[in-house]
Write a structure and sequence with these properties.
Length: 88
């Protein structure tokens, strides 16, 4: 939710986010016996340009390759319950 809330706040303040998004490179199932579904998702993110508000200075993120750990609920319909960026 924190990412969604940040983007909502940016647009609500008259700012913007411009990106070509993410490309999924690899997904590894890390699920264990506890019942939750856990996946490590390696992605390449595109460079991003954004302004946090209408009057803010334009900022840039370079993009690159990163791995996220996604923890989902144990039963369908699956819901994301935790998203963590793993150390490279």
């Amino acid at each position: 939710m924190s990412v969604a809330e940040r983007v909502e706040g940016i647009f609500g303040a008259g700012g913007f986010v411009k990106t070509n998004g993410l490309t999924i490179l690899r997904i590894v199932d890390q699920s264990g016996a506890e019942g939750r579904k856990v996946f490590d998702v390696r992605v390449r993110s595109s460079p991003t340009v954004f302004k946090e508000s209408a009057n803010a200075k334009e900022q840039r993120l370079p993009g690159g390759t990163v791995t996220y750990r996604m923890r989902l609920t144990s039963r369908a319909p699956w819901q994301l319950v935790q998203l963590t960026q793993l150390a490279s």
